[in-house]
Amino acid sequence: MDRVIATLPCVASVEMVETALDVRDCHGNQLRFMPNNLKVDLDAAEGEAEKDRITRDFLEKGLAAMAGITMPALDQLEASLVPVLRPAGYFTAAGDGPDRMVFQPFMAGLDLGYALDKPGSLAFLSQSMADELGLGLPEVDALARKNLAARLPEVIWEVAQEDPWIGWAYLDETLEGSLLTVPEAFTDLAKARGDLVIMHPEKGILLVMAREDAPLEQLRALALEKFKSSGHGITPELFLWHAGAILPLP
How many CA atoms lie within 13 A of 214 on its CB side? Predict the structure, then answer.
């Protein structure tokens, strides 16, 4: 990575922060995006030269995305802003300056941030961007949740097992956990299954279980098995969908 960075113009630093790649340019701009397929491509590459080429292409795309969203227009936000849940502390890693990321506490050890959702990447909204566009936190939050709710028809439910009933929710590699911010995502499933227990991973598939069908330990065991080879890990908290709301499981 370091030798590739040295060949790119206007790159101040590139580092991993939690599960994201943090890129800063020579103007002080910052972009965090998820290296969704980089590791897979690097593992399949033959030789260091090919790995360098793949890494360079990946970073150049990230820098191009940064240039395009350093100060997004309001219509860009209206089209692509989404809520993103991350473990507490994730959004404060960049410090508390004007380019700090917009976020608020969510619940159960999670914080809620906001990002422009682009293919293969998430570009988090900074406070300076929100200020320039005249958007306060309530407006940002409402817009992001509205955009995510509009994508609910894209959610794919897959049954992991029937007895007891446990399912997965698929949306996007970085957004399944964000469904916790839109309880209506689970309404139809709850009509068929009753109250639901939800386990939120830091990133990846969202696990859902019909509350009365199985001991909670079984959901935890299934989650641990599913994510045992993941570098992202899972958060241990469980959430309850009840009467149209999602809260930490008592």
Answer: 19
DSSP sequence for 175-209: TGGGGGG-GGGGHHHHHHH-SEEEEEESSSPEEEE
User: Mind listing the pLDDT tens digit for each residue in 49-108?
Assistant: 888 887 777 777 666 655 544 556 667 777 889 998 887 777 776 566 667 889 999 987
Tell whether 217 and 126 lie within a shared domain. no
pTM for the whole structure: 0.69
| Size of the chain, expressed as the number of residues it contains | 250
- The β-bridge relationship of strands 30-33 and 20-25 is antiparallel
Report residue 112 as tokens: 């809620």
What's the distance, Cα to Cα, between the start and end of the chain in Å?
45
Indicate if the pLDDT at residue 232 is higher than 70: no
Instruction: Write the pLDDT tens digit of every residue in 127-186.
Output: 888 888 889 999 999 999 999 999 999 888 888 888 778 888 888 766 788 899 999 999
Per the structure, the count of domains in the chain is: 2
Alpha-carbon torsion angle 82, 183, 197, 230, nearest 10: -10
H or E stretch at 78: helix 74-80
Which of 88, 118, 149 terminates a domain? The answer is 149
Same domain, 142 and 231: no
Residue that terminates a domain, selected from 149, 169, 187: 149
Its domain, for residue 206, covers 152-248
Whose CA is closest to 238, among 227, 228, 223?
223
- Residues 169, 239: contact at Cβ < 8 Å? no
